[in-house]
Amino acid sequence: MNKENDLYKEKYELYDSLFTQNNIDGILKTVENFLNNPVFILDTSYRFISRSPLARDEISSTETHNEENYLLSDIVSLMKKDKCIDTIYKRTNSFFYYSDQSLIFCSIRINTLTIAYICVLQSNRKFKQEDLELTNILSNILSIQIQKEHLFISNSGLDEEYYLMDLLVNKIDNLEYAEKRLKHGNFSLDKNLLILSIPYKQKYEDYRHNFGLKQIIDGLKRIFGNCISTYHKDMIIFLISNSHQQVISESIKSSLLEFLKLNNLRCGISFVFENLSYIKDYFYQSINTLQLSSYMKINENLNYFEDYVEYYLFHMANNITNDLHKINLSTLVHPWIKKLIKFDEENKGELFITLKTYLENSRNANNTSSKLNIHRSTFFYRLNKIQSLLDTSFDNGNNLLKLELSFKLLSYKLHNYGKLNY
Fold first, then answer.
1. FRET label pair with 188: which of 37, 55, 342, 361, CA 20 to 30 Å apart?
2. Any idea where the PucR C-terminal helix-turn-helix domain is (predicted)?
3. How many other CB atoms are found less than 10 A from the CB of residue 6?
4. For residues 260 and 273, what is the distance between their CA atoms, to the nearest angstrom?
5. 238 pLDDT higher than 90
6. What span, in angstroms and rounded, lies between the C-alpha atoms of 9 and 11?
């Protein structure tokens, strides 16, 4: 009976700490008195949000990057391997986890979304079954306290939100001024740009008071690095910039895919582009990609517009409801084609006409060489040069199909309008 009374008293004091302490550090100090073990609070990027007094002395499991403390990479890898991370996101209650160390984990949720989690390390005393109950209560209390403290709210991003919204909604009448505005913040406007959109219905009219949404944005910003974001029409929208043609590298793609899966989210990704004047068209590429993937019942977390160009054209031709934005035809031409055109202009090359002739001649090397009046070795040199420049392989027939469609779009555009704008 005394044991039940003690647990009841501990629960009461823990709930009361929400009012008497009124901050996360104070709440953790209270719960540590009952658990008698270090308590860590981490966000979904494995960064430490807060630590109890005992946990602050525990440095063997932490590493520091950009003056922020994170869970050691080796531990993260082990947790992923053991499916521990998946369990944290799936379960609403705390659970024991045993590996090299004994731990308790529990997600912290806001509006059903996991925005952080609790980690209790067994070090001072062995765990008891009652510890799970206390950790569950701690999770509920921290969910409330995080919202009270506006922990994930930052005013530093407001300017970038307004800048990006202005680009997406209003007509750009002065490109130089638009680019200058973007450079006011920490965002670096590099050569290659990309729009990524994620559907997310939020509860509050002012999304900056939707803590789960803000946490998603902050988590993705850490993955993308150089980017700005905004929220518009139930969409989280990112403008990402990079000096490399592959704006989303394989490592970023891997982290992004994991983040989307864990949060049960999907995204639409535009073509890579360079000219901000056409940002609205590329934004609608990402939106249409999501609509088309849903329409075609393709359940993927990552959806690239380059895989949906022909379906977009089919859907537009068959569309009687006008529910799809009509994208400028120039922006439907694959970035690879534009890269070849630019390379030839700068180097007086003939890569564009070589590839075009190759595709027009059913990918036959002899016929292409004859048509271009060049030696077969010269043709293969150019073809290898093209693949190297585009960082792709034509062994993948799907890549050539994409290019064939782009050449047809380009031919139609030039025939009707006389020039290609992008």
1. 342
2. 353-408
3. 12
4. 24
5. yes
6. 5
Q: How far apart are CA 320 and CA 370, in angstroms?
A: 46
The DSSP secondary-structure symbol of 156 reads G
Q: For residue 411, is pLDDT > 50?
A: yes
48 pLDDT exceeds 70?
Answer: yes
Give the pLDDT confidence of 157-177 residue by residue, as tens digits.
445 676 788 788 777 777 776
**Residue 321, class by beta-carbon neighbours within 10 Å (0-12 exposed, 13-18 middle, 19+ buried)?**
exposed
96 vs 415, which has greater pLDDT? Answer: 96
Q: What's the confidence (pLDDT) of residue 177? A: 64
Write down the H helix ranges in 225-375: 250-262, 279-295, 309-318, 335-347, 351-360, 365-372
Enumerate the domain spans of the chain.
2-149, 155-327, 335-417
Query: Is the confidence at residue 22, as pLDDT, over 80?
Result: no
Exposed, middle or buried: residue 322 (CB in 10 Å: 0-12, 13-18, 19+)? exposed
Residues sharing a CB contact under 8 Å with residue 7, sequence separation 6 or more, in sequence order = 130, 133
Contact call for residues 220 and 256 (beta carbons, < 8 A): yes
| Whether CATH 3.40.50.300 fits 155-327 | no
181 pLDDT band, cuts 50/70/90, is low
C-alpha count within 13 angstroms, C-beta hemisphere, residue 419:
2
CB 231 within 8 A of CB 207: yes
Encoded amino acid at 302, one letter: L
User: Measured between alpha carbons, how far apart are the two ends of the chain, in Å?
Assistant: 76
Identify any residues that bridge with 98 across adjacent strands, giving them in sequence order.
102
User: What does the alpha-carbon distance between residue 150 and residue 147 come to, in Å, rounded to a whole number?
Assistant: 5
Structural element, H or E, at residue 267: strand 267-269
| C-alpha dihedral sign at 253, 259, 262, 267 | negative
One DSSP character per residue, 324-353 reads S----GGGGS-HHHHHHHHHHHHHT--HHH
Q: Which residue has the higher pLDDT, 243 or 157?
A: 243
| Residue range 385-395: mean pLDDT, rounded | 88
* 223, amino acid identity: I
How much is the CA Rg of the chain, to the nearest whole Å? Answer: 27
What's the count of helices (H) and strands (E) in the chain, helices before strands?
Answer: 17, 12
- CA distances (Å), 269 to each of 192, 222, 323, in order? 14, 18, 19
